[in-house]
Amino acid sequence: MREKKLIRKIVYHVLVILFGIAMVYPVMWMISGSFKDNAEILRGTLALIPREPKMTNYATGWKGFGGTTFATFFKNSFIVSSIATFGCVLSSSLVAYALSRIRFRGRGFWFTCMLATMMLPTQVIMIPQYLIYYRLGMVPGYVPLILPYFCGQAFFIYQMMQFMQGIPRELDEAAEIDGCSKYRIYSQIILPLLKPSIVTTIIIQFYWKWDDYMGPLLYLSRPQSYTASIAIKLFADSASVTDYGAMFAMSTLSLIPVFLIFLVFNRYLVQGIGTSGLKG
Amino acid sequence: MKKKALSLLLASSMVATLLAGCGSSNADTAPTTAADEETTAASDTTTAAAAEAEEATTTPAAENAVSSEPITLRMAWWGSQDRHDKTIAAIELYESLHPEITIEYEYYSFDDYFTKLNTLVASDEVWDVFQLGGNFPMYMDKIHPLDEYIDAGIVDTAKFSESNLKTTQTTDGTQLGLTNGINTYGIAYDPAMFEEAGVDLPTDTWTWDDYHKAADAIADSLGIFGSSTFLSSDFIAGCSTFIPQQGDLGQYSFFNLDLTGMGFDDPQMLTPFIQMRADMINKGSYPDAGASAEVTNIENDFLVTGEAAMTWVAVNQFPTIYDDCKEQGRTLALAPVPRYTSDGNAGAMIQSSQMLCVSEDSEQKEAAAAFISWFENDVDCNNILQAERGIPANEDVRAALSENATEGQQIMYDFVDKVSQEPMPEEYNVLSPDGQNEVQDNYLNYIQQVASGELTAEEAAQKTYDDAGAIFN
Amino acid sequence: MSTAAVAVKKNSFRKFMNSNNTVGHVFAFPFIFGFICFSLIPIIMSLYYSFTDFSLGSKQAEFIGFANFIKLFQDEVFGKSILKTLQYVAISVPLKLAFALLVAFVLTRPTRMVTLYRSLYYVPSLVGGSVAVALVWKQLFARRGLFNSLLTGVGLQKINWFGNESLAIYPLILMAVWQFGSSMIIFAAGLKEIPPEYYEAAEIDGANGPAKFFRITLPCLSPIILYNLIMQTISAFMTFTQAFIITAGGPNNATMLYALEVYNQAFKYNKMGYACAMSWIMLIVMSIITLAIFKTSRLWVFSESDEG
């Protein structure tokens, strides 16, 4: 019996690891590319070990462009992503509470509007949107990159709505009988129970914002204010040459913060949480 | 608790930064407007002065008038890290020579540059000095022509040859900008591979037929592509060049001179070229769609990886691949674009790889024009730039740079000289109409359809002709 | 004013503040504000542009009625692009979700290695549609790439992935499936929310692994499955980057996903009005599909709350 269990365990781990390696291979290739020179990257070997590993890509990459280093770009990205993520969690949970828990006039209408905002391609929306921020005098600047995240993001509003559905209504009702207002139900009952959903929002939204380059491209203009996502693209010039080595090196560094965020918050998805109040 | 305090601190400092940002930008606006009036006044003096004096005296006069008030110019370009660093160094040199001028620069990758430009077009705030390539018809409304500044002596074109100036002119002679580098198309090849396959080397007057046969023979004997892909440029340098190569000099052109219609009547003039491409793909002497998708960049073109004996290049790309192949112990050479008949027209012409323009939205047009003039004419500036954008159009600059040119660059300089000596029609148009991109993309798909037998070459020629004609309807 | 009157006023104010209508609008305010200020006008503008010949360079837009829409129905590339997009959505979304759910389910076992494994599976989703990934993908599917050497290794024919019109879409689909991380995390969060008591009760009833999965996991997770299905469907329709950087729509428009075609029309060919018309047609297509999913969801989504 014990032996059988052990074998099953080994098979499980071997399978998961093998498959995991296949999954990560392309990423490893990028990381190993950051230690290769341009010629070796472009000759297209699929081998992961560089012929002669070198750190020069990191040095040339980090020094950035005309005196603005990647320290600046990463700092900008971090500020923008952190604030936007904070705003997104706060506003999306508020809106989700309204749409999932409160029967008010226009609820269905706003829900439809919310889905509709996701259904038009950015390509046709971005110029009129740019003009609005421009007329409001917010361009160039970080405000247009952050402000919309304080207005709720459809993807996360809907996600939180679905998670709220898993929270028994009896809890709200009991609290209401005790004299709790809706505002307190949100902050004292719903929000704490929404933790897994909030954690996924933080992980995903932070990464999306970190990776987003269309927004920064449209709304920033001084190179000193660029985020890492645009800066990385500055190594590529389809019309002349692309420094793939430096680009891979900075892409690799750019993975670290988002991966750390994932590691920190992933703990909350592994440990059992949120079960205490659910016995109702 | 500690975390809360920290995030509060972060947020408040952020707000402070934002507010500071707003304040300073407001502060900036006021002096700019003042400087603006100043410049207008200065430009009057300049024009008056230009009437009686040499340009040598006017330029200092203009500078004296302007130097009292600070001027801020906005400038943008696209390119690689190397270009960004060099251009910034050149800008810093200009600022040190003209303390009253501050240049706020922005730089992007190619696609991003145009996305950004589109938003600025929409909000009427295009950079004072901006870079444009072959797609400028789309931005014609935003280009402020340089003619008045050339007349006033602010923009110096003395050292530009007529044909180099023409690369950035409309057919009626309006000077849209100054070219950053002149360019033309050619075929880079590896002579050793030709010899190995027992094929004659390209000559200056080789024909498409020679090209086709050489490619097939190389594919047969070496098992590699005879000629590599030219991606989008197959339309510009191949298909559309094929038309002026036919008939007498200046008889046909792909689009007519004033860009209001086609420059030839018989669509079937395109057929042989399309048929050749499809035949080459089926033969394996030219990459099919799958193979050409593997080429991401000129540096992993099949010629460079040793899987093709020729490739088509815009010649400013030649030094890069020459050096890459040199490292592998191979020596590349550069041949002209093949002709329709060996005694016929070359069809190729000197073009501008990209140019600097003054924007219609600019409030500092004159200062912007003066900067462009310096950027293209000053030897010190170009010693920093090192012809990275293409071959300098100014003779003196080019002479200065070619003294320490690399082997690859020297071949490029000689090649451009050779092409510019080809007889040119009295009138020709270097511009292409807005809408050419779509014609080009469709054309590339038609070739694949001919290769797979879905279309005949005649039908593809007719469709390409109709697509191109549709631009003008 | 007497104290009684103040009390009444205060009371009615409190009543007003706690009425469902007020609370709903207060909580939904961020969205309503953002929607009206920053989304509504652009949406209306794009609808207006779709009836004009608006282009980005010259800013004049002339009203041309339904001309764009009529032209769309004769446009071969657009027709092909709709079909390819539907194919892409229909294959990539179910695969991605099944995969994400499977991995999330396997990786909820309470072992110390789970964090490591989950990280391993999440990393691909952190590289997005970068140039680096595009290069790798091109080389994996190149004529002499890894996939072809695997094929020849087991005695099969090589495949010209990017040259074959019917196969070129699969590398893109595989890439979408490969980046299943965000769906996986959301599923994982959903799985954590299922009360362990349910499983305990089922075990007492003698349910085995698969039975527990189908009788407890799937029903409890169904609101999250619905959510992921809707969101992944919409974002699959919007897929742009993969097609843009890997195939650029080729060969012969076989991977011309709709968002890429919109981009080409709007920016490359400079026909913004036409691109807007295209977007609105697709908005209708997407709305119909979304609505259909919502309608069928009544049959398979179980909800703790009394309504969905």
In CATH, the architecture of the largest domain in chain C is Orthogonal Bundle
Spans of chain C with pLDDT under 50 lasting ≥5 residues? Answer: none
- Provide the CATH superfamily of chain A: MetI-like
Quantity of strands of chain A, as a count: 0
Radius of gyration of chain A: 23 Å
Distance between the termini of chain A: 38 Å
Named CATH architecture of chain A:
Orthogonal Bundle
- Helix run count of chain A: 14
CATH homologous superfamily label of the largest domain in chain C? MetI-like
SSE topology string of chain A: HHHHHHHHHHHHHH
Low-confidence stretches of chain A: 272-280
**Helix fraction of chain C by DSSP (H/I, runs of at least 4):** over 70%
Major sheet description of chain A: none
Helix content of chain A: 55-70%
* Overall geometric form of chain A: flat
| β-strand amount of chain C | under 5%
Count of DSSP E strands of chain C? Answer: 0
The shape of chain C is: flat
Largest sheet of chain C: none
CATH T-level fold name of the largest domain in chain C: MetI-like fold
Give a description of the structure.
The complex is a heterotrimer of chains A (280), B (473) and C (308). Chain A has 14 helices and no strands. Chain A is mostly helical and 280 residues long. In chain A, helix 3 (56-62) packs across helix 14, helix 4 (70-101) crosses helix 8 and helix 9 (169-177) runs antiparallel to helix 10. Chain A is flat and about 70 Å long. Chain A starts with a helix and ends in a 10-residue tail after the last helix. By secondary structure, chain B is of the alpha/beta class. Chain B has helices spanning 2-52, 55-67, 81-97, 110-122, 147-151, 162-166, 191-196, 208-222, 233-242, 271-283, 289-292, 302-305, 318-327, 365-377, 379-385, 395-402, 407-420, 436-451, 457-470, and strands at residues 71-78, 101-108, 129-132, 143-144, 178-183, 185-189, 225-227, 308-314, 333-335, 351-359. In chain B, the strands form 2 sheets. In chain B, strands 1, 2, 3, 4, 5 and 10 form a 6-stranded mixed sheet that branches. A 4-stranded mixed sheet of chain B has the order 7-8-6-9. The N and C termini of chain B lie far apart (68 Å). Chain C folds into 2 domains: 1-49, no CATH class; 68-300, MetI-like fold (Orthogonal Bundle), CATH 1.10.3720. The mean pLDDT of chain C is 87. At the A-C interface, helix 1, helix 4, helix 5, helix 6 and helix 8 of A face helix 2, helix 5, helix 6, helix 9 and helix 11 of C.
